[in-house]
Amino acid sequence: MSLPSSDLRLVDFTNAAPSTLQTQVINAIDDANSFLDNLTAGADNSTGIAKLSAEQALADVMQFDHINLALDRSWGILSHLNGVMSNDEIRHVHHELLPKLSAYGTRVGQHQPLFTRYQTIADDTEFFAALEPARARAIELALRSFELSGVALPQAEQEQFAAIQSELSTLSATFSDHILDATQAFALPLEESQLKGLTESGLALLADAGAQYKTRELANGTLSQTDIDALPTPYYVASLNIPIYLAVMTHADDRSLRETLYRAYVTRASEFDTHTNAKGESLNNADIMSKILTLREQKAKLLGFDNYAEVSLSTKMADSVSEVETFLRDLATQATPAAQKDLAQLQRCAQDYGIDELQPWDSAYIAEKVKQSEFSLSQEEIRPYFPLPKVTSGLFAIVERLYGITVQEQSYEGADDHSVSRWHDDVRFYQLFDADDQLIGGFYFDLFARSGKRGGAWMSGFQSRYSYEEQNHQQLPVCFMVGNFTPALDGKPSLLTHEEVLTLFHEFGHGLHHLLTQVTVGDVAGVNGVEWDAVELPSQFMENWAWDAEGIALISSHVDTGEPLPKDKLDALLAVKNFQSGLQTLRQIEFALFDLLIHAHTPALNYEGILATLNAVRSDIAIMQTPDYNRFANGFSHIFAGGYAAGYYSYKWAELLSADAFSKFEEEGIFNPATGKAFRESILSVGGSFPAKTNFENFRGRSANIDALLRHNGFTDVKNTDAANAQTTREAI
After folding, report:
1. For residue 567, which phi and psi values (nearest 5 degrees)?
2. Which of 202, 564, 572, 626 could form a disulfide with 377 if both were Cys (CB 3.0 to 4.6 A apart)?
3. Catalytic residue among 507, 536, 590, 655
4. What is the DSSP string of 163-182?
5. 507 included as an active-site residue
């Protein structure tokens, strides 16, 4: 029997005004604080808390979880809108609430009567052993979270911890604001001569940016209507929004234009960036970065750790800083010979285009030329074969074959019970059904780049699967999947590059992890409670079907003719899979090692120290010189504004797990329904209710090893594979 669609509890975005959400967040915090106050009063009365049973403790814990749903929901909506529809009003409300949320979160983490209830449950060994595994795991993770929130600290140190948490939340938000503002502040009108080499789709993007530029400049008074009328139509303007940036860097023949755009991109929010925000304030993130590191170190010391990297790793699969560093450096050793070949290949080709010394702003351009000459593959030539509607329908067909699930798009018009409210006309909403037509959950796609939307792509697990019998409350999982793809232009649907296809598959893998959970304890349902260095396993795993001939056949057909991707182009696409994989791997290792080392350093690094560490890592890992002015770190939001601090290595760690998991499909058939069922049941369905290592071993029948990762990246000709395998396949993995 199907669950009622009301269990999706969808948001009415038409009534999600920032002021309304602000009130809801404050009310939710007040309600939760009242509950905590009552616990405190109970602990202070004459009977005390000594007689509290494990049963009553669990009832209190579950009631508190339920009370927090309102906060999760209201704040989740506001945070989401701040990411996809940012404006001054939303940003103001979002930032105004951050200190209140931080204070509340710290209070929860340090609330002794609440902690005592969790401890009471765990201490009653007979009662604890009888709990469902998901509940027991949630209790264990909560106790660890209490420890990492300073529950055992003296009062004065708890207050210091709270102040640190509050300041960190504000600094991270400001860091993110600076990047968005710096990205959107840059606009470069182009001359006709600068357009050579650009593709039709690239020119369309630049023209669209030009139209927006005219509107914006007129609105802010920089240009008059007369000035606007004097400008040509179409008017081509380059920006730092990713689709435009990549179009220029990949195809523009004008080398100085590529260098100009590269310099602008890698100096965003740095001392070289002269842009200011609406208040006239500098966008330089330098001081913010050093403050964040200092505060994180102080937090680590309060908790009894030597450095913040140890704090981060205490909740991950990896055991220690040294283990992660060894893993990264060993992988770099494996990748370097391939990277050297990659670089030599680019340098040879660069000579043909009059480039004696290859620079970073040449890499994408020359790489595209190599693809065209050596593989007869042009991203622009294959883009028409990946119209978004075909890619999404093919993606849905793939997961139906793998997991027996079906996807159904919902309507958006009218006021009936089946219409769905959206925050933007670009957004699409889908319901997911199991083989027996039972509703599993729902998801939103918001896939196109636009003003006010932060860069990158992500999945947000907005609403978890959850059940609370005491109030007959059921909710199904709902998530947001967000991208910054090239929008539909010239009356045609969005045409994706294969890189964008991979990104869509990646985020959909995260979405499936969230949606297919069978766990109803919210803290460990879907992606919740999963170790950070394992959370990328399902996402990277899903990318494999976009690299398989059978999978590609399902997601490709020409936008005009409907013809399948020709065999020569398919062969070329598959042949190019490991093109430049050595250089790409080293680049990811460079980011990961930099992230690890700045968080493992004591005392905390200042800005100069951060740059020095980055340069040292580049010297160790990179084989291509980076300009001195490159300030990549100033825009590294994953670690300064996201959840990847001392955890960026997770991408490569999870890639090892993903490659090894997919090798089972390679052995048994990539659409083998039994293997798909096993992956769903062992990995996707269980969420964080068991350790990730246990889940992986349940699926694979053994610990993970590096062989498949090396093979998938084309590193199998490296001589010291065995040595690397021995060092990187410890029991922790």
Report:
1. -60, -40
2. 572
3. 507
4. HHHHHHHHHHHHHHHHHHHH
5. yes
